[in-house]
Amino acid sequence: MEAHVNSMEGVKYDFLLHIHFPEQEPIEQDGTFTQSGSRYRLELPAMVSMANGNSQWLINRDMKEVQIHDFEEDDKNNIMNPTNLLSIYDNPNFDYTLINDHQIEFKPTDKYSEYSKARMTFDTSDKSIQRVEVFSKDGTRYDLVVNSMTAVANPSPDDFEFDKAKYEGYHIEDLRIN
Q: Is residue 32 within 8 Å of residue 119, measured between CB atoms?
C-alpha cells in the first residue's frame, strides 16, 4: 500500500467524513484532499486548509476569515491531520496488527494519546484506501470513507497557494513569524 501511494507524484482523495460525538447526531461532510509531497489542500464545506511547504492557509468560509501560518511538518501524534491520517501505516507512533487481508488496526504507542485506536480498510486488488476510522478516548469516532483515490500526474502549484482574489471580502490575518 505504501509503495502504491508513494509511486504517485500527487494523489487526490474524494471522501465522506462522518463524525460521531457521544450522545449527538453524527455530522457528515463531503470533502477532497489533494497531496503532493509536503504540499496539500483539504476542502470541506465550511473550510479550506492548504500548504505549499512554506506557508499554511486556514480559510474559514463561514466567518470569512483567512489565517496564514508558517508551514511546519506536522506532529506525527496528530493523526487527525489528513496527511498523517492517510499515511498512518508509516507512523512510528503506532503499532499495528493485520486483522484480515484488507484491514489493519493501529494502536498508539503512547498510553497518554487521545486516541485509543485507528482502523484502515483497503482494497486488496489495487491497494487503495477505502476507509479510515479513528476512535478517541473521549468516545468521539471519526469515519472517513474514501469514495475515490486518483493519481495526479502534474499537480498544479496553484492548487496549494492562496489566491486572495478568490476570497474578496475575507479578513486576512498573517500570523507568520518567518
A: no
Q: How far is it, in rounded angstroms, from Cα 142 to Cα 29?
A: 11
Cα–Cα distance, 113 to 14 (Å, whole number):
28
Which residue spans within the chain are E strands per DSSP?
10-20, 27-36, 39-43, 47-51, 55-60, 65-70, 94-100, 103-108, 115-122, 129-136, 141-152, 171-174
**β-strands 39-43, 27-36 pairing:** antiparallel
The amino acid that residue 168 corresponds to is: E
Phi, psi of 5 (to 5 degrees): -70, -45
Segment 40-91, tens digit of pLDDT: 999 999 999 999 988 999 999 999 999 999 887 765 655 556 677 777 777 8
Residue 82: burial class (beta carbons within 10 Å; 0-12, 13-18, 19+):
buried
